[in-house]
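Recall that a protein's primary structure is simply its ordered list of amino acids. Everything else, from secondary elements to tertiary packing, is in principle encoded there. The following example makes that idea concrete.
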Amino acid sequence: MKINEEVAGLLEKVREKGPLVHHLTNYVTVNDCANITLAIGASPVMADDINEVKDMVSLASALVINIGTLNSRTVEAMLEAGKKANELGIPVVLDPVGAGATPYRTEVAKRILENIKLSVVRGNISEIKVLYGIDTITKGVDAAEIIAADSDKLAEEKEFAKAVAKKLNTVIAITGAVDIITDGEKLYTIENGHKIMSKVTGTGCMCTSLIGSYLGAGEDYLLAALSGVVSMGIAGEKANEKVEAEDLGTGSLKVYILDEIYKLNEETLLSRGKIYE
């Protein structure tokens, strides 16, 4: 329960500080990412032109880089923004959306790893394996592998996550049916969320924006990653409960996720957060 209290404390800091979170994200989910950043209590800016990214990131408390919809113009902007953030000590979170789906996408993800010191990397198991250097299959931007809570492979995936964190010298957040968050030494699993969340485009991107929001309010990158993931999981669960009770669908689910992030509080984090060491 102590870790749940720490998450609640960081949420309070987000709402007190209202950190500016600079996003270089994809155009499929940019509006969702902006809205969930506002809902948690932070402030989003979505500037991606190379002529202003260094100035904009200089004003921010955290930088989110999301490679969901790649083009050569924004790739260079991502690299410039990331380098400036490093120079100023501003934390950077990477969402390597679809890494492994095409050679270009994999190459861009690795260029970012090579040129930017990352505070957190959040992705699904397939994307993280690609970053580590393991050949794997992806389905567009979706994971081709699923690790369940009762899977014999869960212990193996935990050790893999630690190895990636050590190799890349960053916090790794692998999201799925069971979420794994580690800095290479300490490791947590989270069992919040609902499978219906995969039926809404952008829930992963929104989770990364939540991590960025928490990064902007504190100095513990592991806690920030954990907080973002558990917040999104709880919101997804509660949203699904409303959808089922009202016999609605995935359009309502997305709206309810935003509502639940906006209403998220200490009591909910303490009572519903399924975080395990």
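The radius of gyration is 17 Å. The chain has one domain: 2-276.
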